[in-house]
Amino acid sequence: MAEPDDELPGDLDQAGDDVEEEQGDVEDVDSPDLDLVQLDEAAAAGDLSTAEDDAEDLPTGSLAPDVSAFTVDVSTGEVRDRPRVTTPVQSALEVQLSGTMPLLLLAKSYQQSSQMPSVARVATRVTRGRVGIGVVVRLPAHTPAAAETFLDRFPGSPIRIADPDLYTAPAYGGPDANVSDQKAGRHPWLVNAVPASAPTNPAWVREVLERQTDVGATVLLSATGWVSAANGAREFAHALRWVAESRRAAGTTPMFVNLTLDGSWLTDPVLRGVLLHEIVESGERLWYLRFRWPVVQPRYGQLRQRSLLEGYRQLAVTAALEDKVLVLPNSGLTGWVATALGATGFSTGPSWGEQAYAAPQIVANRPGQRRPPPTLRLFERTVLHTVDHASHVAMLGETDYQLCQCRYCTALGAATPSTARWDKETASMHYLLRCARLTALLASPNRRMEALREVRRAQAFLRATAGTPAAPTGNNAPAHLAEWENLLI
Amino acid sequence: MNALFWWEPTPGVRLGPTLGTDDVQAAFGATTASFLGRGAFGETWRIVDPDGAVRAVKVVLDENYPEAYLKREVGGLRRVDDPRVVALQDVLTVGLPMGSRPVLVFEFVDGGDVAGRIESQSLPTFEETQAFLRELLGAVTELHAVETVHRDIKPENVALRGASWAAPVLLDLGLAKLLNAESFTQYPALMGTLPFMAPEQVQQQEARKAADVWAVGVVAHILLAREHPFFDDRGRAVLADEALERMRKGPRPLPDGVPEATAAVVRRLLSFEPHERGSAARAYRDLGGGTR
After folding, report:
1. Nearest to A8 by CA among A110, A134, A107
2. A283:B274 CB<8 A
């Protein structure tokens, strides 16, 4: 069976042409890991530039300089921000779960994930171990063997999560309930879930947790799924009974309270009060809360709904004040802002589905209509936004433009107007590495100010280029920056 | 709900003992026995054993006292091992003139309780109140850490070890409840003591940890301001609706001179919305109590 189109940066959809995101079953076929040998072969064939790339693949503990951390001013050729030579080390699991360091969880997408282990290694080095770089695989989307194989490729990441994606179980009545026959065959526990209002089933809970550890998860997610906003307080109480049962089964193994909720839990004062009260009251310290957003436009853009962002702010601040470890899966850079405000971390991935848990935008194709050509996208550190290639090129020559010199941008030829070497997976890996660098900024005593400084730097660039051809417009314009500033200020 | 909400620093009626001193001495083989107080279901005595050991015994006199309450109190106390929560030493059945009765045997905390100090106007300084508040929050933090909620924190249920404001001891877990157990209280039900009840208790909802946090706030406010944060004396008692309205509007201001750290914590503990009170552990940390 073919894998579904995963709509990665550089994928087909364009503004207004989004198609319904399909996250059906996939074969457990990862494209082969792009290892050093392949990189060398590709470079030899002229298919890939590996300039300044070799230092990044030195073994853990290498004292070699990290070239990807260099920033080059293209107008002068001057190398800025030369990093110190560091030894890449990930802190121990208990340190990463202590809430004292920011976490970035790399979430595997259906496709384009072969280079993620490499990203984790590079991210560890360039962030000098100040960020916990973890990994998440969606358990139902893989055979157990494939999930185990994937997690095995991250031996340096103490946090390895196998997400049971229980919010997709029909029993919970969530909006994205969908378990195909193939998934049900592979993971019968998914269809054996019962509504949260039913008495807890210790055997089923134990099975859900064991399936996670079977594939190599080091941190468990509780056997809980979608929490309906209708009769929210009652539904939440039901979910917490299953959390308690999960805790009994998990024993002393680290476990996140794993809940997936509608965005109204952040925007509605009553629901938000219930949620925050439970976080304050609960003896559980680790929380993994996924919120479903409305349609986000454009895809690969950022959440701009003020009420949702304000809800995230209150959640993050409460978690920090109560010494709770809050991780926001599938929240992309909204999660980064929340981390600046008090959350411990977030997850994101190469594809839009991992960057945002949002309602799909459904656009019908007209009969005979051909799909438009792929949009080549790149996450721009300069404006904290994903833009198309033309906008990227337009910004290149600007004085304050910050050219990324990471191995992936080098491979893409991102410093040139050419699209000859453009590749969406490589662009995605750049995005993940940049997320790691942004998260490293938050490993500071005053993380909110660090994030605000970054946002204002991006705004300054926009002001400087306003009215010029370099100014990003339309979907390329980072309209979220003003909202982020409001939150952070 | 028809209850009236008021608070006065002196109890209206002080109930005397129903047991005789001789009966108590005989029942426990004590050399001396002195009456400490009487509650809804029984009374508490101070006894001295022949070996000189001093203990407090809580004799359950009401035949209808639910056995589940007794087990709950015993369970709550046994889950906590902290000098700021009274130590349960034994659970007995003793013979009394009216028949056999269950008894809880506690350490005797020598130093009186907060209610007595309020009544005698022997009140703490602001600095002493801050220490008192911090340590009382520490006691509640320990209780909450084992998923137990007291549900009846009030001046009568807080002793002062060695008469020191810096050494409060939480007493009487008769209404305490293990939070992750199935409740045997059917809500709506009024559980607690009216002037110290949190808004959600007044609304006859389940009392959770946040209700204890609120009650600590009320006690601290009384010690700092010499008045209840919301209610006046019996002559100006208010009904539940008015009580809730006052709670929603927020507490009366604290006097000038209260250290800002203390004032901020007390104001937060008296937030109408439960989640805005934060946890006891957070308030404990905020007052320099450290991390559990």
Report:
1. A110
2. no
Contacts of B269 (CB under 8 A, 6+ apart): B213, B214, B216, B217, B220, B277, B278, B283
Find where tokens 């996250």 sit. A23
Identify any residues that bridge with B106 across adjacent strands, giving them in sequence order: B56, B88
Smallest Cβ–Cβ distance between B210 and the set A277, A283, A321 belongs to: A277
Q: Residue B180 is nearest to which of A244, A318, A323, comparing CB atoms?
A: A244
Question: CB distance from B14 to chain A under 8 Å?
Answer: no
On the question of pLDDT at B266 being above 70, the answer is yes
Q: pLDDT tens for residues B195-212?
A: 999 999 999 888 899 999
Are B93 and B165 found together in one domain?
no
Q: Which residue has the tokens 């280079």?
A: A115
Q: What tokens appear for A31 in the block?
A: 């494209």
> Which band of pLDDT confidence, cut at 50, 70 and 90, is reported for residue A22?
very low
Which positions ≥6 away from B174 have C-beta within 8 Å? B39, B41, B69, B72, B73, B152
Q: Does the beta carbon of B291 lie under 8 angstroms from any beta carbon of chain A?
A: yes
Residue A143 identity (one-letter amino acid): T
For CA atoms A477, A482, A483, A484, the dihedral sign is positive
- pLDDT tops 90 at residue A260: yes
Structure tokens at B211: 């209700």
Chain B hits for A276, Cβ within 8 Å: 275
Query: Beta strand A226-227 with A255-262: parallel, antiparallel or unpaired?
Result: parallel
Q: Which of B107, B139, B154 is the last residue of a domain?
A: B107
Of residues B28, B24, B53, the one with CA closest to residue B36: B24
Whether B278 sits inside 8 A of A322 (CB atoms) is yes
Which residues 6+ apart lie within 8 Å of A292 measured at CB?
A175, A176, A260, A261, A262, A263, A357, A358, A359
Average pLDDT of B45-64? 91
* A199: chain B residues, CB-CB within 8 Å: none
CATH code for position B97: 3.30.200.20
- pLDDT value of residue A112: 83
Interface touch A281/B273, C-beta < 8 Å: no
- With an 8 Å Cβ cutoff, are B275 and A321 in contact? no
Residue B144: list chain A partners with CB under 8 A: 283
Distance of alpha carbon B90 from alpha carbon A207, whole angstroms: 42
Indicate the residue of A277, A283, A318 with minimum beta-carbon distance to B274. A277
Residue pLDDT, tens place only, A31-64: 333 333 443 444 344 333 322 323 333 333 333 3
- Residues A318, B275: C-beta atoms closer than 8 Å: yes
Residue at a domain's end among B60, B82, B107: B107
Q: Which long-range contacts (CB under 8 A, 24 or more apart) does A150-155 make?
A: A150/A30, A150/A108, A150/A113, A151/A215, A151/A216, A151/A217, A152/A216, A153/A33, A153/A116, A153/A117, A154/A116, A154/A117, A154/A120
Domain A93-355: state its class: alpha beta
Q: Is B273 on the interface with A (CB under 8 A)?
A: yes
Look at residue A50 and give its three-state secondary structure: coil
For residues A190 and A171, what is the distance between their CA atoms, to the nearest angstrom? 9
The residue among A319, A227, A336 whose CA lies nearest residue A276 is: A319
Closest to A390 (Cα-Cα) out of A361, A419, A425, A410: A419
Do the Cβ atoms of B250 and B221 come closer than 8 Å? Answer: no
Q: Are residues B177 and B44 in the same domain?
A: no
Range name among A6-20, A255-269, A348-362, B133-147 with the lowest pLDDT average: A6-20
Helices and strands, number each (H, E), in chain B:
10, 11
Phi (first) and psi of residue B105, to 5 degrees: -110, 125
Residue B13, domain member (yes or no): no
Read off the pLDDT of residues A350-380 as tens digits, 9 standing for 90 and up: 999 999 999 988 776 777 777 778 889 999 9
Please report whether residue B184 resides in a domain: yes
